[in-house]
Request: fold
Amino acid sequence: MNLSDLDPGKIPRHIAIILDGNGRWAKQRGLIRQQGHKAGADNVETVADMMIAAGIPYMTVYAFSTENWKRSQEEVSYLMGLMRWYLKNYIKTALRKGIRLRFLGDASRLDQELQKLIIHAEEVTKDMPNLTLSFAINYGGRDEILRAVRKVSRDVADGKLDEKDIDETVFSSYLDTKGLPDPDLMIRTSGEERISNFLLWQLAYSELYFTDVYWPDFSEEDLEKAIRSYAARDRRFGGRKK
Ligand code: IPE
Ligand code: IPE
Ligand code: MG
Reply:
């Protein structure tokens, strides 16, 4: 990907992705949904490498939503197994490539092994400098905000936080994304044009980009198109055009 013609200030620093269409990708090929999820997981790794090559320091992917428990037990348990397997293998790769791993969402509902892997992965990769790759697992934007509100209330009750000090910066520090900049660009694949409970607070001023491509097919060319679309936009944040 050659972005050297773009003003560096026009390249997004944080790209969040709703990776969608794994099931339809599989169906289109006469495969089972699980094979779509496997291909989708492989593509997360491929796209992370593209981010590093493009000099984009933050990537966040929506891997499993708080609503995805509604799927069949078979599909849910395959997805959990895939995440365990993938993460176990990926930690070494992340260390080699300088990738910091983070997790967003309520881990308490995940199995013990996955919870332990998450804690371990975050700990051992915490100083990695090239890319912060965050996985949203059992993540819902509303759930995240409610969990933050409970923590804020507890700190107020305990006298650790004064109610009048709760501003946007303080509140943000109670969210799972603490320390991450808000996404500049949010990409959703597979033709669906909705947020599906992803990063509700953090996407307040993100640019949105939708593509019909199914996630396992999302290529370097598709990423470049999304970045170029972003670069051509005028972000006003409520102000006036310069
Ligand atoms: C996205 O692919 C992956 C997850 C939500 C876990 P889907 O499984 O939603 O694929 P489609 O939307 O059925 O094609
Ligand atoms: C959103 O995709 C969640 C993830 C990508 C993890 P879904 O496929 O679950 O979303 P809906 O149901 O089409 O809104
Ligand atoms: Mg879907």
In short: The first helix runs from residue 22 to 28. The helical segments are 22-28, 33-54, 73-97, 112-124, 141-157, 168-172, 220-231. The pocket of IPE (ligand 2) is lined by residues 18-20, 62-65, 68, 192, 194, 196 (CB under 6 Å).
